[in-house]
Write a structure and sequence with these properties.
A five-stranded parallel sheet has the order 3-2-1-7-20. A five-stranded parallel sheet has the order 9-16-10-11-12. Strands 4-5-6 form a three-stranded antiparallel sheet. The longest helix is centred in the last third of the chain and has 20 residues. The two termini are 32 Å apart. It contains 14 helices and 22 strands. It has 482 residues and is of the alpha/beta class. Bound molecules: flavin-adenine dinucleotide (FAD). Flavin-adenine dinucleotide (FAD) binds next to helix 1, strand 4, strand 8, helix 3 and helix 9. The site of flavin-adenine dinucleotide (FAD) has 36 residues, from helix 1, strand 4, strand 8, helix 3 and helix 9. This is Oxidase. It comes from Streptomyces antibioticus.
Length: 482
Amino acid sequence: MTERATLPPPTRPDLAVIGAGPAGLAATLAGAARGVHVTLIDSAPQPGGQFYRQPAPGLGARRPRALHHRWRTWERLRTGLDAHLAAGRVTLLSDRHVWCVERNTDPSPAPFTVHALLGPAQDESVAIRADGVLLATGAYEKVLPFPGWTLPGVVTAGGAQALLKGGLVLPGRTAVVAGTGPLLLPVATGLAAAGATVVALVESAAPKDFAQRARVLAAAPDKLAEGAGYAAQLVRHGVPLKLGHTVLEAHGGERLESVTVAALGPDGRPVPGTARRLPCDTLAVGHGLLPHTDLADGLGCRLDGPAVHVDDEQRTDVPGVWAAGEATGVGGAVLSLAEGHIAGRSAAARLRGAVPDPAEWAPADRARTRSRAFFDGLDGVYAPPARWAELVTDETVVCRCEEVTAGAVREAVGSLGAGDLRTVKLLTRAGMGWCQGRMCEAGVAGVAGCAPVPARRLPARPVPLGVLAAQPDRPPPPPPDR
Ligand SMILES: Cc1cc2nc3c(=O)[nH]c(=O)nc-3n(C[C@H](O)[C@H](O)[C@H](O)COP(=O)(O)OP(=O)(O)OC[C@H]3O[C@@H](n4cnc5c(N)ncnc54)[C@H](O)[C@@H]3O)c2cc1C
């Protein structure tokens, strides 16, 4: 099935934007306003992405803004999207999980085909033709293992946030929020504001880590104000902030009952005598974010470390493919909006055969420069404890899908001589399950003492065999030139 028939006549180039978060929405509005038809595709039922995740309509939320920041920006994006949808300049395909973007060897009728699985059953695939592709797929959470992390009641920080914003439910009544990264702040304050007792926010970054970046922080007064706002909310809700601390273990029988936290010494090890047990029914834990690069990787786009490489126009090194937002590096919603705006304007011009004038997006460029400088300056502050892997006991399951323990991973390295992540995977099956390492790769790499490698997951989503079998016969897409 193709959605081409629903699109306007091919007088306007078609841009497929994958991801309807801040970056994808900004790109869609910029592109549609400048003469391209945009097909906006997202796996979620509604646009908004992670930052502007909306409550399901059936819940009848009376004040959805209560859980949000920068609501006016969301209203502007939503109003703009609605206007473009009504005018037929944008087609919105929600609930579509893109599993592959194909570069067509014969570019007629279009150079790219985007393959997406439909809805919750995901047993049917649609193909969307496009002249250009803009990847705005955001980031996913990094969670490192520790004893007890698989107990019911332990959720990811972003998962807790998603339950709250999308389902208007609390993951529990008494929560500890732990790990590292700026995401912990809205999660702790959001849970507290929604009525949970937040026993503590446990952040492994120490006060001295922030003090060392005082100049970076001082150069971004808006970020300082945002941080101060969160601090004030923590105080108002009586949430203790434990900087330079970590969770050692989660305890419970059938489900989580308490966690042990301890102060970290300068060597990254827990300081003896500082361990404290905190009763709770929920642990919301996260250790940062990693860019979603599966689709870019499948297209053969160059990666810089964990992120998609882009130029000043947000173009990847594959002609006709742009990337924006956290897929190109984690840096928050403001940076995603700026990158999306620039990418959308660049794509609109290039797809119509024109050379864009960067002066036209100067304010977005300045926002991009400021945000990138801020997050580069913070680099290293939000890092998991240097010795976290030593705290993972041999019995701890590190790969949940395949139920592989830390002991098995250590044996693969120690006794069986595995020297890289791929060999560890082949010997233990760690990372071979449903999530294909999305959840466990960083943890397995840390326990194994192997360097993490850029994720290579094709297709980008698990695809039913029936869907693959139903694809028309044609040669497979050319492999990336790497
Ligand atoms: C779980 C989670 C929760 C977060 N919560 C907050 C928060 O509360 N406050 C905050 O300041 N920051 C939060 N962040 C950080 C936040 O992601 C960014 O600051 C901002 O949303 C990034 O915008 P983006 O457009 O780059 O990506 P996102 O907002 O992540 O949007 C990406 C979109 O792409 C879609 N997508 C990805 N892959 C595919 C695919 N293969 N097929 C179809 N669609 C796809 C996703 O469904 C998503 O809607 C969160 C991050 C995560 C991972």
